[in-house]
Design goal:
9-stranded mixed β-sheet, 3 helices, about 15% helix, 5-stranded mixed β-sheet, mainly beta
């Protein structure tokens, strides 16, 4: 008798799960995923939004809304493929993108919705609001001008051995560091005196001993300065910019040394943020 009662109880439990609104099986058929290609964007960047719905409803499009606080600053409709995939591209910025900070992207499909928060920063390339005096051992100081979005710089140190500047960071989110480097103090030149790429390394909080080579954009350059824009990640605790010369008294390093340095970095770290191979 007890065995029969157990079987009946088990059947009732299964039936309850199947017919109860909001049960796990019902939720599973309505899932929607959402991702973006980056976590932070500067004004003018293209935001790529993509995802997948678990159950396709013929003819129904996904609705994408963008919010700054409680204010809606963007909306679009996007088709969902037979495989349940969707994608859309929007431009970060415009007349109603007034404030920097967190932006919420919401995707709705039928009665199901999902949200993701990204960070948005106004375009300030070439505008430097902070200055740091870098100490030269036994020689005084020189100034580095910078603007950082998504965190702050706690210190900038000169590394004579590596021919580099080291930026110690406190990153609150993904962001960007724009810096103005004086050529008299740090530069990266070929043996013929032509500009070549710096090596830029990032160090993450959970793996602080292994560098990750990362790309950067050149904002501007002239006879006195080179201005760089370097993306930073939330987990970054340090950036290092390696050149071929730093402070005249410290001398230069040959091109072959720079080439060996790049090879060593790639050998040490399996990760990279490069979308190109540095020109040397």
């Amino acid at each position: 008798m007890s065995v029969i009662m157990l079987k009946i109880g088990f059947f009732v439990l299964i039936l309850f799960v199947l017919i109860t609104p909001g049960a796990a099986f019902a939720q599973d058929t309505n899932r929607v995923s959402l991702q973006t290609d980056k976590e932070a964007y500067v004004e003018g960047d293209i935001i790529t939004i993509s995802g997948k719905v678990n159950q396709v409803i013929t003819g129904l499009e996904a609705s994408i809304q963008v919010f700054s606080g409680k204010n809606q600053i963007g909306i679009s409709q996007v088709k969902v493929s037979k495989d349940g995939e969707y994608t859309d591209k929007i431009t970060a910025g415009g007349p109603i993108w007034k404030n920097e900070g967190q932006i919420t992207i919401k995707v709705t499909y039928g009665e199901t919705s999902v949200e993701k928060i990204i960070n948005f920063f106004k375009e300030t390339s070439g505008e430097y609001i902070s200055l740091y005096e870098v100490k030269i051992p036994n020689e005084g100081t020189f100034d580095v001008f910078y603007t950082i979005k998504g965190g702050k710089i706690s210190s900038i140190d000169l590394n004579q051995k590596n021919i580099s500047l080291v930026f110690n960071l406190i990153a609150n989110s993904d962001g960007v560091l724009d810096i103005k480097l004086p050529r008299d103090n740090i530069d990266s030149l070929s043996n013929a005196g032509q500009d070549i790429d710096f090596i830029v390394l990032a160090y993450e909080k959970d793996n602080s001993m292994i560098p990750i080579q990362t790309e950067y954009k050149t904002i501007a350059q002239d006879n006195d300065f080179r201005e760089l824009s370097i993306p930073i990640k939330k987990d970054d605790i340090k950036l290092e910019i390696i050149g071929t010369q730093i402070i005249p008294e410290f001398g230069n390093i040959a091109m072959i040394v720079l080439a060996v340095a790049i090879v060593s970095i790639i050998a040490v770290s399996a990760k990279s943020r490069l979308s190109f191979i540095p020109k040397i």
